[in-house]
Design brief:
alpha/beta
């Protein structure tokens, strides 16, 4: 049985500049290793990465190979399969070999023997030939190259798609105080009922919650009204914004772990401190559920944000 830490260290920020509120940029090699080391020493044993996150996999590999890590068998790495782009005629054999080669490369980068959790990064790939990718991953799991596999979902429809395949037992989902879709439509409970390991990401909505409503990028002015409501709530209850947004997701009984990225050790330290806090009061949770029940997808889906957005100075 996998013992997954309640915080999963997201490493996209270690591989490239990531997050709308990231003003520090990508940390250098030594700072990245320091973040990984601090996390491990403070009982964070789960690390989320992808070949698409710059040199993130290689950084983790360097950390693993250069450290004398006790209980290495407790280290859980999540990596991902990039979007399938095969021009040749798609068959089981060539898709199987394509995925296997991707996994071999990730294993080499990470300097591990197999990948504990492997996710389909582009969930629509499941629809290729009625789930051919699932057949391939099931075989690769039998080959001993991965322990568990699943999907990285971006919307409720992709979550529904995953439920069609009995071999999927891990999912990574976006969920936060603005994005309550999976709570309200019952899919979060259904995932738990089916025994999924559920990773929550975007709990800070890529840093949007930390931006002043007056300094929003032009294409995110639509978020001003809900952010002002959020400011009212944190003042009324005298609670820090990171504590409110973190605990809202942590306290959902279905969530196995929270994927949280960082650029600094002190951010990891802060998240660990919040993790130990008491649950939110029911009236605060109810207020959040009421105030942010219908937030536009233009706000909660970062893929719809203009990539050139910059925070107004």
């Amino acid at each position: 049985m996998m013992l997954i830490s309640k915080i999963t260290l997201g490493t996209a920020q270690l591989g490239f500049n990531y997050g709308i509120a990231n003003v520090n940029g990508k940390p250098d090699f030594n700072k990245s290793i320091e973040i990984l080391n601090y996390s491990w020493q403070n009982e964070i044993n789960t690390f989320d990465t992808s070949p698409l996150y710059g040199n993130s996999e290689k950084l983790i590999g360097s950390f693993i190979s250069s450290k004398s890590i006790d209980n290495l068998e407790n280290l859980i790495i999540i990596s991902k399969l990039p979007r399938i782009q095969l021009e040749d005629k798609l068959t089981f054999d060539n898709l199987y070999m394509h995925i296997k080669n991707q996994i071999f490369q990730s294993i080499k980068n990470l300097q591990i023997k197999k990948i504990p959790i492997y996710l389909i990064h582009h969930t629509p790939d499941i629809n290729i030939k009625d789930g051919l990718i699932i057949d391939c991953l099931t075989q690769i799991k039998s080959d001993g190259l991965i322990d568990k596999f699943g999907i990285s979902a971006y919307n409720p429809e992709e979550v529904k798609t995953s439920l069609k395949f009995k071999d999927i037992n891990v999912i990574q989902i976006p969920i936060n105080i603005f994005d309550q879709r999976l709570i309200r439509n019952g899919l979060l409970k259904e995932l738990k009922k089916r025994g999924y390991i559920i990773f929550a990401r975007s709990i800070y909505l890529q840093g949007l919650f930390f931006i002043s409503p007056e300094k929003l990028p032009k294409n995110l002015k639509i978020a001003k009204k809900p952010l002002l409501k959020l400011q009212t709530i944190i003042k009324e209850y005298d609670i820090d914004i990171d504590k409110l947004t973190f605990l809202f997701v942590r306290d959902l009984p279905e969530i196995s772990s929270l994927v949280i990225g960082t650029e600094k050790v002190k951010q990891v330290e802060r998240n660990i401190k919040i993790l130990k806090e008491q649950p939110l009061l029911n009236d605060i949770r109810n207020r959040i559920m009421e105030e942010f029940s219908e937030i536009s997808e233009r706000i909660i889906n970062p893929s719809l944000w203009n990539k050139s957005n910059q925070i107004n100075k």
